[in-house]
Design brief:
It is a single chain. By secondary structure, the chain is mainly alpha-helical. Helices cover about 80% and strands about 0% of the residues. The protein is built from 5 helices and no strands. Helix 3 packs antiparallel against helix 4 and helix 4 packs antiparallel against helix 5. The termini are far apart.
C-alpha cells in the first residue's frame, strides 16, 4: 500500500466521529472543486465521477441523520444536503458550473460550523462554550 493511501486509511480509522464527519464534508467540497475544473476543461469523465462522488457523500450523510436526536437541526441539514445533491445532479446533466457553485455555497457554512465544533471538542471545549 503506498504511503499516502496508508496514511489516509489510518487517519480515517482513528478519527473521532465528529472529525470523520468533517473529513467527509471536506471530501465533498474537494470533489466539487475538481468537478468545477473538469467542467471548465470539458473533461466529461472526470466531471461525472467527481460530481457523483460529492453527491454520494451528501446522500450518505443525509441517510444517517437521526431526527430523534435533533429534529430541527436534522431537518435543516437534510434540506441543505438534498438541495446540494439536486444542484450537483443539474450540473451532471447540463455541465453548467453555476450549479456546482450553488451546491458549494449551500454547503460551506455547514462545513465551517462542523469544523469549528469538531476543533472545539478536540481542544476540550464543548460546542458553544468559550475556550
Amino acid at each position: 500500500m503506498p504511503a499516502l493511501s496508508h496514511y489516509k486509511s489510518v487517519q480515517v480509522a482513528t478519527a473521532s466521529p465528529e472529525r470523520l464527519l468533517v473529513m467527509l464534508l471536506q471530501a465533498a467540497q474537494a470533489n466539487m472543486e475538481k468537478a468545477r475544473a473538469a467542467i471548465a476543461a470539458k473533461n466529461s469523465a472526470t466531471t461525472s465521477e467527481t460530481l457523483q462522488k460529492a453527491a454520494d457523500i451528501l446522500l450518505s450523510l443525509d441517510g444517517v441523520l437521526k431526527e430523534e436526536v435533533a429534529t430541527e437541526l436534522t431537518g435543516h441539514l437534510r434540506d441543505v444536503y438534498r438541495f446540494a445533491v439536486g444542484r450537483l445532479t443539474m450540473a451532471m446533466v447540463t455541465r453548467e458550473v453555476h450549479y456546482v457553485d450553488d451546491a458549494a455555497r449551500a454547503l460551506a457554512p455547514i462545513v465551517e460550523g462542523f469544523s469549528q465544533a469538531a476543533q472545539g471538542l478536540s481542544d476540550g471545549h464543548p460546542a458553544g462554550s468559550a475556550p
